[in-house]
Amino acid sequence: MSTLDSGHVQVAVDAGVMTITLARPDKKNALSNAMYGVLADSLERAEADPAIRVVVFQGDGDSFSSGNDLKDFTAQATGAFEGERHVMRFLKNLAKATRPLVAAVHGQAVGVGTTMLLHCDLVFTSPDARLTVPFVNLALAPEAASSLLLPARIGHARAYAMFALGEAVDGTTAVAWGIANAVVPLEDLRARARAAADQLAKRPLGALTVTKRLMRDAEAISALMDKEGELFAQRLQTAEAREAFMAFAERRAPDFSKVG
Ligand code: COA
Fold it and tell me: How confident is the model at residue 83, as a pLDDT?
């Protein structure tokens, strides 16, 4: 077994399975730029190493992920963010991944915590899972090709309510709507995801690879990510978004009546 602990993301490889654990529980596994960097690097490593046949995502603490670190968004909105950004590299690597991706999801799965699941091949949820994509509440726009993948998966009406009203989907509903494969008691969640990954690791990798390629138009997904990314970057610069981020930091409800 090889293990890499990069601060808030732990990466372990064992018997053909790379397990990526989001490990920033005090912030509900909010994803910082550095964490995106490790996630992007890990997916590249998985694609390049024939000994890695499956990737599993899971989260430490009471949640899968509270999504993008809102402090990073604020820094981008105010121009204070410096250095290379890794989020798009991670998303593109999800889009073009040929290795099967498995996720074990419990607690909060906000924003990218949910949209990344649309790139996973097997998803297991615990009953307490709470999937949300509150981009409009944050004055932002859908990302990670979710503007296509989410309505394709669950229908426009449900997807719109999730995007525009921030409606939450629990673990059982996620299965009923086709976002996840099975709802599993929390205490069994990781083991179930691991067992599925172990099964996949025994399958012929070449056949898994072409099956996944045929099932997903990676180029179209990637092109949509670029289009969404442009709009997302524009939205980050708006007065609406600044109000949303300030409201979160000040633990109050946003007031969009005076901005727009
Ligand atoms: N970015 C940065 N910090 C975050 C965060 C995020 N996305 N989500 C949670 N945190 C931090 C909180 O600021 C808090 O930090 P503190 O203890 O230093 O004050 C800590 O994580 C715990 O969060 P808290 O809000 O107290 O937990 P909760 O159980 O009441 O609510 C959430 C959990 C996830 C519903 C709530 O934190 C939330 O809405 N977070 C923002 C999610 C979001 O909008 N993500 C971006 C999507 S694009």
Answer: 86
Task: Give the C-alpha distances (Å, rounded to integers) separating 158 from 21, 27, 110, 121, 137.
Answer: 29, 28, 16, 21, 16
pLDDT at position 225 is: 98
**Can you give the CATH number for the domain in which 102 is found?**
3.90.226.10
Instruction: List the domain range (segments joined by +) for residue 10.
Output: 2-186+205-212
> Residues 188-213: pLDDT tens digits?
999 999 999 999 999 999 999 999 99
Q: How far is the CA of 2 from the centre of ligand 1 (A)?
A: 31
Mean pLDDT of the 122-134 span: 98
Report the nearest-CA residue for atom 7 of ligand 1.
69
Residue with CA closest to ligand 1 atom 8: 66
**CA–CA gap between residue 170 and residue 62 (Å, rounded):** 15
Assess if residue 182 is contained within a domain.
yes
How many domains is the chain partitioned into structurally? 1
Give residue-wise pLDDT tens across range 57-92: 999 999 999 999 999 988 888 888 888 999 999 999
Q: Per the domain annotation, does 95 fall within a domain? A: yes
Containing H/E element for 56?
Answer: strand 54-59
